[in-house]
Amino acid sequence: MEVLVLPTSADVARRAAEVVIDGLRAARRDEPVLGLATGSSPLGLYAELARAVASGRVDLRGACGFALDEYVGLPAGHPQSYREVLLREVCGPLGLSPGRLHVPDGSGHDEDELVAGAAEYERLIREAGGVDVQILGIGANGHIGFNEPGSALSSRTRVKRLSDRTRHDNARFFDGIDDVPTHCVTQGLRTVLDAGRLVLVASGPGKAEAVAAALEGPLSASCPASVLQWHADATAVLDEAAASMLRNRDYYDASAAGL
Ligand code: GLP
């Protein structure tokens, strides 16, 4: 695992974009597959990728995107559904065709429909040849995607209940807590681990505890982001505040300085 600590969140966005671009190039595929996270953490990274696309340095027209997760029960076109967020924040700016954006289906009317949709999502990822580079944020409770603490390390895409903490954290995107869905469909931790490269971005003091648990705590379902430790090509790109509780900081900085 590589841990890169940079002065500001703008530096994080720039550096993480380079790690993503490098990972897509290394995949050497005509139709690379990008794993997309929502939340505020990756927005700067998406803006940097958009800049790289606009300058002609990167061409993502052949790429396809797979979202990590989606809320259950939001009406089609709801501005906070992750499909809409990604159409707005990613597809347009990155030149990624909306037809190549895949998002878990949270519109099922009952459990059977949702379970069938989740299985279909796993099939689509396999059919696309797997995710080459997966972008990740981290929840303040250590979740990735919507894999809340207690999620099985071997989990696949499935329906999950959101924790109270996550619903409160995400209430800022809705009119109030009562409007935040109680359930989601999320890629599982095993699904995330199947990606060729993982790039986690985190900024701000509110993430410091989760980042320390994820990178230096035990590999544990109690901190779902700790599965990064299991992956052979995972990079965490952090600002100073998010890295402030790491104990092995000197080692990370020395490693980042290269040979
Ligand atoms: C959301 C998303 C996650 C995201 C996390 C952190 O609930 N499902 O994929 O990483 O919360 O969000 P933010 O980056 O806004 O802090």
Describe the structure.
This protein has a single domain, classed as Rossmann fold. The protein contains eight helices and ten strands. It has helices at 9-27, 43-54, 82-94, 111-127, 164-170, 189-193, 208-216, 249-256; strands at residues 2-6, 33-36, 64-67, 69-71, 101-102, 133-136, 158-161, 183-186, 197-202, 234-239. A seven-stranded parallel sheet has the order 1-10-9-6-2-3-5. β2 (33-36), α2 (43-54) and β3 (64-67) form a beta-alpha-beta unit. α2 (43-54) runs parallel beside α3. The radius of gyration is 17 Å and the shape is globular. 2-amino-2-deoxy-6-O-phosphono-alpha-D-glucopyranose binds at residues 37-41, 68-69, 137-139, 145-146, 166, 170.
Q: What's the short story on this structure?
A:
This protein is an alpha/beta fold. The chain has helices at residues 9-27, 43-54, 82-94, 111-127, 164-170, 189-193, 208-216, 249-256; strands spanning 2-6, 33-36, 64-67, 69-71, 101-102, 133-136, 158-161, 183-186, 197-202, 234-239.
Assembly level? single chain
CATH domain fold name: Rossmann fold
* Largest sheet geometry: 7 strands, parallel
Give the neighbour order of strands across the main sheet: 1-10-9-6-2-3-5
Number of helices: 8
Tell me the distance between the termini.
16 Å
Mean pLDDT: 96
